[in-house]
Amino acid sequence: MKNILFFGDSLTAGYGLPASQAYTSVIEKQLEEGSYKNYKVINAGLSGDTTAGGVHRLDRWLHQPIDIFVLALGANDGLRGIPARETSQNLQEIINKVKHAHPETKIILAGMEIPDIVPGRYAAEFRVLFRELAIKNNIAFIPFLLEGVAGMRHLNLPDGVHPNAEGQKILAKHVWTVLKDMLEV
After folding, report:
1. Which of 3, 34, 106, 134 is 20 to 30 A (C-alpha) from 27?
2. pTM (2 decimals)?
3. What is the pLDDT averaged over residues 49-59?
4. Which positions ≥6 away from 173 have C-beta within 8 Å?
5. Is 159 a known active-site residue?
């Protein structure tokens, strides 16, 4: 059995929804329905988590085999206005820890964006940090996990921030587009 570990925040945890509707569960179903029954999905999503929090809680997940590691943290950093440099350093530390513990693990980084309505250069700096990390570390990259979902009222819960079941299916499509090329039958 091969493990795919999804390490993220409320978007990964499927905030406000039954676990079966989180994008990780949607992907798990795709794996089971396809020729990938040898993969197990582990949802390590924690609502409210930041990249700094992720650095501190990662170690508890590294004791088990990880074949594919999907890093989907950063949204809460952006919402809190944490400096892009700090977010980047934390994500790099997580990538380093995974590579050190499991050198053969394939890593996918999910990009995040914040609305351009945020004043100054912050939105642009925040957006680019994910692409720069993916290039620097030569890892797979999902440009924007919430592409087509962010700001779309009908795809989000009443809070306007967290995807509903239909929105989670779109997140799953974004992840699957990158993940499918890493799977072995």
Report:
1. 134
2. 0.97
3. 98
4. none
5. yes
Active-site annotation holder among 35, 63, 100, 159 = 159
Burial code (b: 16+ CB inside 10 Å, e: under 16) for 131-162 equals eebbeebebbbbbebbeebbeeeebbeeeebb
Active site residue 162: yes
Note the pLDDT tens digit of each residue in 157-167: 999 999 999 99
Token reading at 71: 């890093």
The whole-angstrom separation of Cα 101 and Cα 111 is 23
What's the pLDDT score for residue 118?
67
**CATH 3.40.50.300, applies to 2-182:** no
The single residue of 67, 102, 162, 174 carrying the catalytic annotation is 162
Active-site residue, selected from the candidate residues 9, 10, 77, 102: 10
DSSP symbol at 61: G
Domain boundaries, the chain: 2-182
Residue 10 known to be catalytic: yes
